[in-house]
């Protein structure tokens, strides 16, 4: 067998492993872990809307809430391991492509690479929180956003970089919301295995949850752009402060209730994706 044939065989075997049962299990565990986080953040945001908690409605607040439950330490480790699975799945998509006709395109692989980097960070923060018994989670999302913005503003062309990042987040939020409303997630589902009732559940949770998620991303991006224009890092907001701003609108806490409910629905949608997504 010549060298090129051996290389092709090696790539085929690596791709088969990447799409095997282990990777599929990792992907489904990661989607379920994402669902847990969104459910907890949404529940905390609902409590904030009705003035029932001082806990932060972000990943740190969700982890703190989870740590107080029975077997909280075990649940935190399970959540972190699930997110590691999500990162490994995205890495396999970046290396070998994803399902679908254009799954091996450069755009899809670049997007998978970005998602891989994001979930590596999220998994690390969750596992750090678990290993330090809740004493470390990287700080609140608001403090992280303000610190990162302050450091970025100090470098040459920092205002432009922060402004561009904010615009990118706004665009990402719009992309997330539009894809949800257009039900683009149908391309990733095993629709033939779903009952009509399951499809309705996925559409309700996918559209409402995705729209709420996209809206929060877009608003957070707007705050980043404002921080760049005014050269004020304190105007950058993480997830918690972004959610709280919805309660300060003329609609009062009810807009926050709607967004929080959307996060809960996106958590349910993530569980549905863990069950029916094509991997």
From TrEMBL:
<keyword id="KW-1133">Transmembrane helix</keyword>
<feature type="domain" description="DUF1206">
    <location>
        <begin position="29"/>
        <end position="96"/>
    </location>
</feature>
<feature type="domain" description="DUF1206">
    <location>
        <begin position="208"/>
        <end position="277"/>
    </location>
</feature>
<feature type="transmembrane region" description="Helical">
    <location>
        <begin position="31"/>
        <end position="50"/>
    </location>
</feature>
<feature type="transmembrane region" description="Helical">
    <location>
        <begin position="254"/>
        <end position="274"/>
    </location>
</feature>
<dbReference type="Pfam" id="PF06724">
    <property type="entry name" value="DUF1206"/>
</dbReference>
<protein>
    <submittedName>
        <fullName>DUF1206 domain-containing protein</fullName>
    </submittedName>
</protein>
<feature type="transmembrane region" description="Helical">
    <location>
        <begin position="202"/>
        <end position="229"/>
    </location>
</feature>
<feature type="transmembrane region" description="Helical">
    <location>
        <begin position="70"/>
        <end position="89"/>
    </location>
</feature>
<dbReference type="InterPro" id="IPR009597">
    <property type="entry name" value="DUF1206"/>
</dbReference>
<feature type="transmembrane region" description="Helical">
    <location>
        <begin position="160"/>
        <end position="182"/>
    </location>
</feature>
<keyword id="KW-0472">Membrane</keyword>
<feature type="domain" description="DUF1206">
    <location>
        <begin position="113"/>
        <end position="183"/>
    </location>
</feature>
<keyword id="KW-0812">Transmembrane</keyword>
<feature type="transmembrane region" description="Helical">
    <location>
        <begin position="110"/>
        <end position="130"/>
    </location>
</feature>
């Amino acid at each position: 067998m010549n060298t090129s044939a051996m290389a092709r065989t090696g790539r085929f075997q690596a791709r088969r492993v990447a799409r095997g049962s282990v990777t599929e299990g990792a992907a489904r565990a990661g989607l379920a872990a994402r669902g847990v986080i969104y459910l907890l953040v949404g529940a905390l945001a609902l409590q904030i809307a009705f003035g029932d908690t001082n806990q932060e409605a972000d990943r740190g607040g969700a982890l703190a809430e989870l740590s107080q439950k029975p077997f909280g330490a075990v649940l935190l480790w399970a959540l972190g391991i699930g997110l590691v699975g999500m990162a490994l799945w995205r890495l396999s998509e970046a290396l070998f492509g994803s399902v679908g006709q254009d799954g091996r395109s450069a755009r899809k692989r670049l997007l998978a690479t970005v998602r891989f980097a994001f979930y590596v960070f999220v998994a690390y923060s969750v596992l750090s929180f678990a290993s330090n018994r809740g004493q470390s989670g990287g700080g609140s999302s608001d403090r992280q956003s303000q610190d990162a913005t302050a450091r970025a503003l100090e470098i040459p062309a920092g205002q432009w970089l922060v402004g561009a990042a904010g615009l990118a987040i706004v665009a990402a939020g719009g992309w997330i919301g539009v894809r949800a409303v257009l039900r683009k997630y149908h391309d990733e589902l095993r629709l033939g295995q779903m009952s009509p009732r399951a499809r309705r559940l996925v559409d309700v949770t996918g559209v409402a949850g995705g729209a709420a998620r996209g809206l929060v991303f877009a608003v957070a991006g707007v705050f980043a752009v404002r921080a760049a224009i005014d050269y004020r890092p304190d105007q950058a907001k993480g997830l918690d402060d972004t959610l709280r701003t919805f309660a300060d609108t003329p609609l009062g806490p009810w807009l926050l209730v709607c967004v929080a409910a959307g996060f809960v629905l996106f958590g349910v949608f993530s569980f549905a994706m863990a069950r029916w997504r094509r991997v």
